[in-house]
Amino acid sequence: MCVAGARPNFMKVKPVMDELEARGAECFLVHTGQHYDRAMNEIFFKELDLRSPDHFLGVGSGTHAQQTGLTMLAFEPLVTELRPDLVVVFGDVNSTLACALVAAKMGVAVAHVEAGPRSGDWSMPEEVNRVTVDRVSDYLLAPCEDAVANLRVEGYRDERVHLVGNVMIDTLLANVDSARKRPVLENLGISRGAFGLVTLHRPANVDDEHVLHGLLKALAEIGQELPLVFPMHPRTRDRLKQHLPPGVLTIEPQGYLDFVSLEDGAALVLTDSGGVQAETTALGTPCLTLRNNTEWPSTVAEGTNQLVGCDPGQILSSARELIKHPPPPLRPALWDGRASKRVADVLISDQAAPQAGSRG
Ligand code: UD1
Ligand code: UDP
Predict the structure, then answer these.
(1) Is 327 in the pocket of ligand 1 (CB under 6 A)?
(2) Which phi and psi angles does 7 have, rounded to 5°?
(3) Which segments constitute the UDP-N-acetylglucosamine 2-epimerase domain (predicted)?
(4) Taking a C-beta distance cutoff of 8 angstroms, is the pair 30, 2 a contact?
(5) Catalytic site residue 201?
(6) What are residue 4's DSSP bridge partners?
(7) Ligand approaching nearest to the C-alpha of 35
(8) Of 102, 135, 254, 268, which is the most exposed, with the fewest CB atoms less than 10 Å away?
(9) What residue's CA is closest to ligand 2, atom 19?
């Protein structure tokens, strides 16, 4: 069973499920329903040619406990009915946590795709999810060397940890050529290399009025020098109480292909997204991360990402500097479009079905 529920899951589940099925595994796609707007959900199925979910749990939004608890309640009977050999979960969202916990408690083997990234910031709900999911998983499929190092420090045995690379980059590389052909830049009246792209949705940035105000101030100032395009996440849209200045064009969350086209064509990306940090590094686009920490340090050490925090003056001066002196693009090892193949190499072997209970 492959579990997806929120926007950053769809581009990760697609290549892995394809690869597992190509090798003869019978897969069921379970959609928890954590994200449900067309722009946060359906459009990804269409653009990525991801088949309709075999099972839809319809959980929707709520507090962390509501969302996680309802997902667990809905997922448990499905596991009882289907008795899978393996539950594959992706990333760090609440759907990932809920389904990993259910499977682990039912004695079903769990594979975690994107195991090991750590921000070290326990105020981030995703950090709680990452650490907990890894703890109950049998197969820890790590996207990069630093993730493997984190797991070693936490005491995981080498047999459980597999460096496979970043499956999200498999999907990116498979789609970047079609993304470049999209007319999104023309439609928005912007030119390649002459605009900035913004995404913001972390609770620490958008739920705190003071922090959000400072970030918007920085965007307004940058927008006077470089037009900014800001596809707005629904959480941010809900929190926003002011209009943005003309230099900052707010638009609906974008479909995958148009968004990748924007990432690829931007002179600069300003973001607090995990996936966008990784994708901009893979594309070689300069990125400023509006946070004090990152679970993707290789995008800073090797890629085009820079951590800048939330201070408006610092953001403005770093943006100017990065546009003037873009960092050289360098992609972390195994972000090569073949990560899903390595996932399947680990999960499908000539031996017996995956075994639960190797967590220790
Ligand atoms: C979730 C993930 C986060 C991920 C992000 C990707 C958790 C804890 N957080 O955050 O790690 O980076 O998705 O986008 O799992 N909403 C809609 N329509 C939708 C979905 C959400 O309007 O289709 C609104 C609702 O008001 C909801 C709010 O957005 O309450 C937050 O949604 P939720 O899934 O709880 O968290 P995200 O902020 O999206
Ligand atoms: N993305 C998209 N449209 C948008 C914003 C993001 O298709 O308007 C894609 C982006 O290319 C990446 C993923 O969504 O593949 C990142 O998800 P998000 O930022 O929501 O979550 P995070 O990675 O922070 O968990």
Answers:
(1) no
(2) -45, -50
(3) 20-347
(4) yes
(5) yes
(6) 31
(7) 1
(8) 135
(9) 273
| Catalytically annotated residue among 31, 112, 162, 201 | 201
CA–CA gap between residue 18 and residue 120 (Å, rounded): 33
Q: Which domains does the chain have, with CATH numbers?
A: 2-166+336-347 (3.40.50.2000), 174-324 (3.40.50.2000)
Q: With cut-offs at 50, 70 and 90, classify the pLDDT of residue 266.
A: very high
**What does the pLDDT look like over 77-123, one tens digit per residue?**
999 999 999 999 999 999 999 999 999 999 999 999 999 999 999 99
Task: Identify which of 164, 146, 153, 169 has the alpha carbon closest to the alpha carbon of residue 284.
Answer: 169
What DSSP letter does each residue of 77-109 carry, written as one string?
A: HHHHHH--SEEEEETTSHHHHHHHHHHHHTT-E
Q: At residue 229, what are phi and psi to the nearest 5 degrees?
A: -110, 130
Which ligand 1 atom sits closest to the C-alpha of 201? 38
Q: How confident is the model at residue 161 (pLDDT cuts 50, 70, 90)?
A: very high
Q: Is the pTM of this model over 0.90?
A: yes
